[in-house]
Design brief:
13 helices; six-stranded parallel sheet; alpha/beta
């Protein structure tokens, strides 16, 4: 994967050579390529939605309260539409607002109907559907340890791999090798999006290369729905937990510069707890869970081994402290 291009400094614009010019909206606002594509996508979706409803542009202008001339610019991909007007368009077309900006893949009729079906389901049934889709999908023996920094993924994963006699991979090291940069430098130069693109590409490469592997992931991977879905469907995942104070002490002992110093202990522990609560619903989607608080490595490794599926489909199990 190519490293994303470095961002332009704030306030600067990329130079355009020859006749190459950034497109402009009807209001004269210059758009970059991605903005132009988004406006074109919106225009196409509005036209298609009208056609499906046998609705004239004049009727849509009337129902949305948007002038006919401005609506024509929106459909042509040159109207720099506001969120308020976008919402009025969506209501007039009886579509969710995101439906006007969806990608070509998610505009597929099967996808649309499946989404509508899922919206009607109770949380308990959604959980059953997810397990039916994901459990047993992985080939071979792929195991992934997930959780916030400080739960012991990088320590426990190689020990587990050694006991199982299969390779160990740390996803952050794969990302650093791909970029030839440290994780912190990747975030500084290319931002969250650049790092997450590398993370996804490296995960795909691990899946293609290793039918059997123990993987230690970064704590924030679960927040990227596409990458997390790939992980859940390709690995037996174990959420490693620990109390925030325990995680803080472990990271502090590693002299990790990304966490506050011991002088700001209470603030750091509070931040860890806040992050844990925000991610908890995502971590709870893992196949199994293990609380490592107050346990020695000699206790944790056998407990991890006991969680792993034998023959057949992995069955969700939870071990608490």
């Amino acid at each position: 994967m190519k490293i994303p291009r470095k961002k332009q400094p704030a306030g600067s614009k990329p130079r355009l050579s020859g006749v190459e010019r950034a497109p402009r909206t009807a209001e004269g606002i210059e758009l970059d390529t991605s903005e132009s594509e988004l406006h074109a996508l919106l225009g196409r979706h509005v036209r298609e939605a009208r056609a499906r409803r046998f609705m004239t542009r004049k009727a849509l202008a009337r129902d949305s309260g948007i002038s006919l001339a401005y609506l024509a610019r929106v459909e042509a991909g040159t109207g720099n539409i506001s969120l308020g007007l976008l919402q009025r368009l969506a209501l007039a077309l009886n579509l969710p607002i995101e439906g006007l900006l969806t990608s070509e893949a998610t505009a597929n009729p099967d996808f649309t109907l499946i989404i509508e079906f899922l919206k009607r389901q109770a949380p308990e049934r959604l959980a059953r559907i997810r397990r039916q889709l994901f459990d047993g999908e992985a080939d071979g023996q792929r195991i992934a340890l997930i959780g916030i920094r400080g739960v012991g993924k990088s320590t426990l994963a190689p020990m587990l791999a050694d006991r199982l006699g299969i390779p160990f991979v740390e996803l952050n090291r794969e990302i650093e090798a791909e970029a030839n940069l440290a994780v912190g430098e990747i975030f500084t130069l290319f931002g969250q999006r650049g790092y997450r693109e590398l993370e996804r590409a490296c995960l795909e490469r691990v899946i293609a290369k290793y039918p059997n592997v123990v993987l230690a992931t970064g704590g924030g991977l679960v927040a990227e729905s596409g990458t997390y879905e790939l992980l859940l469907s390709s690995f037996f995942t174990v959420w490693l937990q620990a109390r925030p104070r325990v995680m803080f002490e472990r990271v502090l002992a590693q002299h990790d510069a990304r966490i506050a110093s011991a002088n700001l202990r209470d603030e750091a522990i509070e931040n860890i707890g806040r992050t844990l609560e925000a991610r908890r619903p995502l971590y709870e989607l893992a196949h199994a869970s293990l609380d490592t608080s107050g346990k020695s490595l000699e206790q944790i490794v056998p407990a991890l081994l006991a969680l792993l599926p034998g023959a057949g489909k992995p069955k969700p199990r939870v071990v608490t402290g």
